[in-house]
Amino acid sequence: MTxxxxxxxxxxxxxxxxxxxxxxxxxxRQVVIPEFLKDIDKTVGRVGWRRKTASFxxxxxxxxxxxxxxxxxxxxxxxxxxxxxxxxxxxxxIGEDAEKVLAAEFATIAGPPTQYYIVQGSTNALKAIKLQAxxxxxxxxxxxxxxxxxxxxxxxSVDLNDYIEQKHQSGLVKRLRMELLRERFGVDDSRYTAxxxxxxxxxxxxxxxxxxxxxxxxxxxx
Length: 222
Prior knowledge:
The protein is an alpha+beta fold. 34% of the residues lie in helices and 21% in strands. It has two domains: 3-47 and 165-209, no CATH class; 50-147, no CATH class.
């Protein structure tokens, strides 16, 4: 589905009328979709359709490298060994350590990349990795990252099939309609509480969509 199709289904009875109607698209993109993806993460973990790979060609003396437009955060990022095939050392995220970030901001002595943090990219729409020191040569880094939906604005329709597996998009419709009902009528409204129950059941059902199998017991097939 597209974002417009999700919004149309969630607002089938024009519950988002008046001022709320103009807020609908922003609410969908900036609030509901991020919360919906968090709900999935909490229930089944980071699923494969949210992950993607990226490669960075690191050159001497350059510390900043733009991430892909749909980049959210890294699961892991490693340097390749000199053979260009096998993985070498992992780049360690230091973005939550203010002292290490400060030291990196003023680093002038070149060295091999070992740490990184996230900064503003070359445009406002992009994020970038920044290395802890100017690289002392050429390297290649490869990483697995979790994706976000790179909305260019709050009005243009976006095809969600590239970012949210189709079997989960009905859950997104429910999540958006819940938010519309909450904004319009409040959390004590019977329509909201009923839909919240349906959404809760949907999340419980996601347990069957986990990508990793449980190892609690063995099942033998004859």
